[in-house]
Amino acid sequence: MRLLTTTTLVSALAGAAFAADSELTVFDWAGFEEPSIFQGYIDKHGDSPTFAFYGDDDEAFQKIASGFKADVAHPCSQMISKYRDAGLIEPWDTSKIPNFNKIDPEFLDSPIFKDDQGVWYIPTDWGATAVAYNPETVPAEDVSTLQIFVDPKYQGRTSLPDSPDDVWALAYLATGTTDWTDVTDEQFQKAADWLRQAHQNVAAYWSDPSEQAQLMASGAVDVAWSWNDGVTYLKADNYPIAFQRAADEGSSTFFCGFVNLKDGPGNEEKAYDFINAWLEPSAGQALLDTIGYGHTSTEAMATVEDDPAVKEGLSPVDAPILAQTPNSPEQRERQQAEFEKIKAGF
User: Fold this and answer.
1) CA-CA distance, 52 to 68, in Å (whole number)?
2) Region labeled Disordered — which residues (predicted)?
3) For residue 85, what are the contacts with CB-CB under 8 A and spacing of at least 6?
4) CB-hemisphere CA count at 13 Å for 108?
5) Sign of dihedral through CA atoms 107, 55, 210, 163?
């Protein structure tokens, strides 16, 4: 019931705001409004920022490009070039971010994020996309391969994210491609053909982790291509759930963070207070406990390195990994257009 209530609430309030501190508006994924993640901000200002929510990266970009006003947004890494090309963001002043140098350098290793004009992106969180399944109804050997998503035995029993990035990561992996930054036409077509097969087994596409968790908790589906969040939510409610990140063909990883939106209506200094709160070491445990994600700060990750949730959901695995690092905007648009056709049955 808790999951059902959460899903209904998120659906009802998609795009709406949770009003709190009116001097800072954060455009974010539902779930990240958990106060413990940015407790330092509340300690300083007495309240959470105002949050507005979106369901996927492309939706968020389109809304901001259409004039929606917020101070900061929380896109994943492959979106940053679109924000920059559209002139929607400005660099951060890292002299105002004391813990900036605690961010693992690998998360900033791209001229899209950091160049001679400044730092355009503050990576904060990362996770995995892999196979979530009910171990009481799905044998472990069935999830040893991503071909479970096209297995006729699971027709009407699977769920995929309504996210072009994540479904294409799955399709590329399932067809033998582990680097999406240089995809050939043949690789694209092979993945598209596989995704059309997978579509035949899909009971529902989930738009946020709470919805995915509810689909599994209700018994509507037994297998999902899932972020860490959905698994964390199900575990918290004592539903049987397992997370297979070492299928033969592999799994995917992603990371997300904050951009400084141009002409934000709020207090710029409070935007920095929010980022600084996110980068405190204490945010590592809060992020892991509430969302199941890892933190980009090496200091924050050091506080949770022995937590069982890190071993299950975030530790290295002996399997191929497709990293959802920035790829070309043209490739993303091609994937998005093809995904819409597939969902429509074409």
Assistant:
1) 10
2) 319-346
3) 329
4) 19
5) negative
- The answer to whether the beta carbons of residues 74 and 27 sit under 8 Å apart is yes
Q: Is the model's pLDDT at 288 over the cut of 60?
A: yes
Q: Are 40 and 276 in contact (CB under 8 A)?
A: yes
Which residues, other chains included, contact 163 with Cβ-Cβ below 8 Å and sequence gap of 6+? Answer: 56, 57
Beta strand pairing call for 158-161 and 72-73: unpaired
Q: Are strands 158-161 and 118-119 parallel, antiparallel or unpaired?
A: unpaired
* Strand-strand pairing, 118-119 and 122-133: unpaired
Residue 75, token pair as written in the block: 């896109």
Mention every residue, 6+ apart, whose C-beta is less than 8 A from residue 68: 27, 52
Per-residue pLDDT at 218 exceeds 80: yes
The pLDDT > 70 percentage for the chain reads 95
Contact 125, 34 (CB under 8 A): no
Side chain identity, residue 124? T
**Contact in structure between 2 and 9 (CB atoms under 8 Å):** no
Q: Judging by DSSP bridges, how do beta strands 118-119 and 294-295 pair with one another?
A: unpaired
Paired tokens of 143: 């999830």
228, 231, 230, 232: which is closest to 254 by C-alpha? 228
Q: What's the confidence (pLDDT) of residue 29?
A: 94
**CB-neighbour burial class of residue 335 (10 A; exposed 0-12, middle 13-18, buried 19+):** buried
Neighbours of 16 (CB within 10 A): 10
Amino acid letter, 45: H
Q: Model-level pTM?
A: 0.91
Burial category of 139 from C-beta neighbours within 10 Å (exposed 0-12, middle 13-18, buried 19 and up): exposed
Beta strands per DSSP E along 208-320? 223-226, 242-244, 251-261, 294-295
